[in-house]
Amino acid sequence: MIVVLKQNPNRHQLESLIAWLQEKGIIIHTSIGEAHTILGLVGDTSQLDIDLIAALDIVEDVKRVQEPYKNANRKFHPEDTVVQVGNTQIGGGNLTLMAGPCSVESEEQVVAIAKAVKASGATMLRGGAFKPRTSPYSFQGLGATGLEYLKVARQETGLPIVTELMDLSQLPLFKDVDVIQIGARNMQNFDLLKAVGHQDKPVMIKRGMSATYEEWLMSAEYVMAGGNENVILCERGIRTFESYTRNTLDLACIPVLRKLTHLPIIIDPSHATGKSWLVDPLAMGAVATGADGLLIEVHNDPAHALCDGPQSLKPEVFDGLAKKLLKLHDFMKTVEE
Amino acid sequence: MIVVLKQNPNRHQLESLIAWLQEKGIIIHTSIGEAHTILGLVGDTSQLDIDLIAALDIVEDVKRVQEPYKNANRKFHPEDTVVQVGNTQIGGGNLTLMAGPCSVESEEQVVAIAKAVKASGATMLRGGAFKPRTSPYSFQGLGATGLEYLKVARQETGLPIVTELMDLSQLPLFKDVDVIQIGARNMQNFDLLKAVGHQDKPVMIKRGMSATYEEWLMSAEYVMAGGNENVILCERGIRTFESYTRNTLDLACIPVLRKLTHLPIIIDPSHATGKSWLVDPLAMGAVATGADGLLIEVHNDPAHALCDGPQSLKPEVFDGLAKKLLKLHDFMKTVEE
Amino acid sequence: MIVVLKQNPNRHQLESLIAWLQEKGIIIHTSIGEAHTILGLVGDTSQLDIDLIAALDIVEDVKRVQEPYKNANRKFHPEDTVVQVGNTQIGGGNLTLMAGPCSVESEEQVVAIAKAVKASGATMLRGGAFKPRTSPYSFQGLGATGLEYLKVARQETGLPIVTELMDLSQLPLFKDVDVIQIGARNMQNFDLLKAVGHQDKPVMIKRGMSATYEEWLMSAEYVMAGGNENVILCERGIRTFESYTRNTLDLACIPVLRKLTHLPIIIDPSHATGKSWLVDPLAMGAVATGADGLLIEVHNDPAHALCDGPQSLKPEVFDGLAKKLLKLHDFMKTVEE
Amino acid sequence: MIVVLKQNPNRHQLESLIAWLQEKGIIIHTSIGEAHTILGLVGDTSQLDIDLIAALDIVEDVKRVQEPYKNANRKFHPEDTVVQVGNTQIGGGNLTLMAGPCSVESEEQVVAIAKAVKASGATMLRGGAFKPRTSPYSFQGLGATGLEYLKVARQETGLPIVTELMDLSQLPLFKDVDVIQIGARNMQNFDLLKAVGHQDKPVMIKRGMSATYEEWLMSAEYVMAGGNENVILCERGIRTFESYTRNTLDLACIPVLRKLTHLPIIIDPSHATGKSWLVDPLAMGAVATGADGLLIEVHNDPAHALCDGPQSLKPEVFDGLAKKLLKLHDFMKTVEE
Predict the structure, then answer these.
(1) Is the distance from CB of D183 to CB of D102 less than 8 angstroms?
(2) B182-226 per-position pLDDT tens digit
(3) A63, A83, A106 — which closes off a domain?
(4) pLDDT by residue (tens digit) across D310-324?
(5) Is C305 in the same domain as C243?
(6) Deepest of A282, B336, C200, D331, by most Cβ within 10 A of its Cβ?
């Protein structure tokens, strides 16, 4: 951490700051220039509150050199994390296809889709039981009943299930779920993150609509600080001024996160674009960029989906796409030695 | 609502759509052009799920003409909502000054600040007991103890208190709070919104970091749909590419919301800018633009604040600012007839 | 185009509007609802000034149904445009690799790089002679001399050259250039667009830092309206709040533009990310998403590049990447029937 | 400037870097930590190309401590710049009201508006002769004829004129204009900036749609580096995801720029919002926040304006607003001692 002091800092305040930092085991290198004095802080600076230091009268600016996250940081954990879910592994060179309906609507629907996507190569079933909807007048999901239908579909197909938890009060209902999804709108619901950090199921954290990589990784850090190391990151587009697509899918997150963290990275082209015809090319792009997996909406009757219909593929379209994705994943192994 | 159909829509599907809309009491005006057929839907379209219609194979685009919110909509509620809190009123031509520390740190601290800001003209005390912090390693607030200190400060000064609720499980602790604040990161925590909609305390909803006006009003609608009409909106800056200020304060929200809704509008220049020296000019700007009040951080020792120090004013600085703000508010009444 | 009228519009003004529209050959369908009257305008609405109509006292809102661009619109030109440049074709199923230094620094440098990238499979040479630099104190490019060095490199390798034109006063210098590049900062320099529209060389338009697809296509329309049909679009990232990468590369633009326009689409991962280690994965992602080509910075000594060094690949790294890109492009043909 | 080195930097490269910096008169303070070695560079670092240093293999990150602009920097020019235009002064505690039509349409129109706005208190006349329009099919302005009409209006009223220059080839036509405006789309048209820096008329630079404060000041620096010190900055809103308003007006720029630079700051609420009913409250907010002036569109018949009509005020509305603005400006002097 680098602390840039104002010109002619109050000597007494400077000594207090130095003493306080030394107390925390920080070593300080001072560099005195004409215009500025700069303190280089060396040691475990992730414990220092950058805002607190920036608040001091004598400080002009504070800049981090080290990342504020530790458990999620590849520097301290060089090996890729591979998350085991039932018989499938997320990360470690696998391509995980998570597919299923946006909303669980009925047992028949979710079982039929689960069978179809499994036949096409999906290794996990996704489906929403609790749905975050912008309008209180929109369908809010089947709730606990929806979770039951998902479990029936799992029993029929063997596919592990991933579904969104919206509030920590629902946690008891999720004890039989395979992967807990934290939605984009809850990425900084810190009480929820703490709660899922204190249980042992894998957690998939979607990137917030305007979250930076660092904030996203800090949300992972919340979960991991609670003891739960099985965290998956899921990019679903960020908000920009372009409104033709619902959000702007940021595929650069794949290589960037690969460098910053050891956690697996899943891409959701369905929510990112909001248009089903964009799912195919962007899913292919995500695999070529190095994604560990994809989260894709599949619906047997998009026209009657109770939510988010325009971004859902029909099972036969997903079938063609899944085959291409798996072939591309194999191809990529041949060119990336 | 306007539905633009694709060229040569399937006749059977079109008839189904029309029948379904008519069932919901919607009247349909059809306009057939060379390139497009357009359906004009008339009636209560706020109950229609726009995504569901857009999902249909025959539909190219759907555009809303009416707003999707009703309770929060000025068209259906032309009079300004005035929220009564203790002896003070928010909205209706008053200027409400909510001031206090970012975090409650001790009884002495919050009582001292409460007395100071009351003497300067503040009519409400703000202070965080539960703190949303980006890092799990940062101070998370005093929690329930912090709420107790706020109540002591209220008892000593008579100032009603506003403080942030982060999770619905904490709701029982808030029964003696005057106004419940929903933070920016929880603006779309829909379970939390429903929960505060089913209790009777006023709720102040901060705008999400990248929320549109419509999404913000839909969050108000969630609370109001539960029966709680006492909703206050608080702008705290939106995220842009400009990083000199923490966020970009959007003062245009004041006249825009004044037109769209009847709810009072509070501006928070402290969080929006993240720098204490920007609070004064932007608070003045907010009053001249027509804000119903301000939320301002005041700290008796910014250098030792446990969080968000750089944006806090010292009580003596707040005193000067409060006097200017009240004078400006009086002046504005003389020029706006 | 749909015109939503205010409630109880002034009858005289409405009649004037209708007469004016009819004069322009527009057919009007009127749909009268309880809250709103809606006019559906049918005909060539691209000639109507949407702002002018929105300005009318009786109008509440105007929404376009048809795109405002014609020459660039795939609806009116269903076949892909293939731009012929020397012996190479851009678009039409080819993968064009444009490679070279950010800035032309010397004849030796640009010739050496040109030879290297040609050997690796590049089909065009890029290089900046006139450089848009944020600071007046930064190197501004070699100018006319740089253009001469590029021509020497072309003579030595046969690679056609693409280079940026910054001002229309420089146009005479560009008469021996193969493709004129319009930089992101000049995407809405309308005089420059008109000028290159009135000459016959192909023009590659980079997307502005915060331009929408529609604005970008309108810039292409400016060039095409002047009679020059040979326009290439180049995505180089848009500005978002994420600052780890210089910009956010929007690969969704590829399938979206493929639908909206017939013009070829090139991706520039070097400028988009600003980091050389991100070029490889994003270039692969771009090809899998369907790009017609890539614009990649290659430098023989990145450490001494006079500008934009951090994003340049060394020739040997480019060599490995180019081979992978061409293999991936072949692979994609086998899976996309 | 702070240079953070990678772990175990190549010794030879480090020595080269240090030698190169010392050659440029930079003094270097080295701080060696466990994880990172940090170089603190002291001296005139504005001449250093930050990208060049960041490109070096041994460098992990470079951070500026000093601003990259000098002529525009308040640190090197503590006094406010006051720009003299005819009999009026911009900056230095004055409130400059620049008013007039978006587009010059006819001599009668612009003379009538000029007379009206002068009577209301405007001190400068604005009006577009060359118009940057997104569509090649929209009205592009009257050009040279429009400039003539503006001069007639100046003769009739004595109001100095400010109007936009779109291309440096038009510069000879502007020799009789009082203030040259550089539009938002040309903020980084560096050849244009250089050209207006080499002539002696005041230049008003509008902020680019997604420009940071620093980039905006670097554009001012381009003009000032050419010898022209009379630069005025004009905020006209930045692009965000909120689309209800055309752009998001960033009033925080006023106090921020006041600190960073000595140049006067004008606010344009008309273009920023795109809606005439938002001009009044935001203009008032701008004055209370400390703006040096306002740029306001006034049209005698908004319904027939050839461009940008929805944001223009009628003269009688401007009259009421101008009176309020001047009263508020006087009031502000009484409260800001």
Answers:
(1) no
(2) 999 999 999 999 999 999 999 999 999 999 999 999 999 999 999
(3) A63
(4) 678 899 999 999 999
(5) yes
(6) A282
